[in-house]
Amino acid sequence: MTAxxxxxxxxxxxxxxxxxxxxxxxxxxDFAPVSAPLPACADGQFLARTLFLSVDPYMxxxxxxxxxxxDPVVIGQVMVGGTxxxxxxxxxxxxxxxxxxxxxxxxxxxxVSDGEGxxxxxxxxxxxxxxxxxxxxxxxxxxxxxLEICQPKPGETVVVSxxxxxxxxxxxxxxxxxxxxxxxxxxxxxxVAWLREELGFDAxxxxxxxxxxxxxxxxxxxxxxxxxxxxxxxDITDAIFPILNTRAxxxxxxxxxxxxxxxxxxxxxxPFPFLLTKQARAEGFIxxxxxxxxxxxxxxxxxxxxxxxxxxxxxxxxxxxxxxxALIGVLQGxxxxxxxxxxxxx
Length: 346
Ligand SMILES: NC(=O)c1ccc[n+]([C@@H]2O[C@H](COP(=O)([O-])OP(=O)(O)OC[C@H]3O[C@@H](n4cnc5c(N)ncnc54)[C@H](OP(=O)(O)O)[C@@H]3O)[C@@H](O)[C@H]2O)c1
Known about the structure:
binds NADP nicotinamide-adenine-dinucleotide phosphate, 6-stranded parallel β-sheet, single chain, 7-stranded mixed β-sheet, alpha/beta
């Protein structure tokens, strides 16, 4: 068999279901691998083989069993997640065998779909995996979450936490494109070097080795902070408040440092006195509020990629069986850029 020939279809569909609500950091035993029959394609449907699964921090929240802005995954349900796949059977005229598509069919090797919420990709325009990263949900989170909420102006100082991840690495580069000074906070020296040397961040530091975050930020932001893009919350975010400039804007994107703490989050600073005296604004968002503008965001990000103004990196974990390990890895900082799991080559 040559590398380009599709693999024959198996009789079973391997899936990961939620086995237990995690306490603290998820464990591999919180996920149950099961083998279901390969689903049959009815009229109007197609069958896709998963090529890539996206693993994202929000999945930790879905595992708690508590409804937040979205329904939780219940015990025994297939884990949810964004996917890229190849159509291997079709009884839907809009999807042809061989098409590469992106959707949201979760942690399984195959899925049938009627096409709702599924987008066909053009592999000649960009590698299909980018539909889960720079040209997908994380890219849109960086684009709209930063530009709409922070409204950056040229010459301003932008601080990004979680700066070497899927979203953060793009926010800093968009800040540079908009003429701002970009300062990143990340969890290793090699991530800091990547931000500085390859992505063009003006400054960055490793929060695991520089523990006085406010002092470090004062050093790296001599003009103060105009925009803060928050991916992490906790102590890192507490440190930015004393350095905010008048009319600073904070985009509250994620709080990953708190996701494994359960119902007892850490105590922290009271931010409102800082917001009051600096006439500053902090605003949370859920990226789906911008869903109707995604075509505009994807087109702009694709243009910046083509012009060489934007770079991205993927950390790819091989094999269906390693999906739980990959999600735990994201929560522990094992990724640089977008974390993906490759289930199949074609
Ligand atoms: N609001 C929305 O609609 C929306 C949409 C997408 C994502 N998000 C949020 O955006 C954030 C980034 O998401 P992403 O997909 O781009 O993930 P990511 O940044 O690619 O991966 C998560 C990163 O978080 C860092 N991290 C983990 N624990 C940490 C801690 N205790 N303190 C500081 N950093 C920690 C790790 O990097 P280090 O090595 O640097 O620690 C890890 O690589 C997450 O909080 C996510 O929930 C929100």
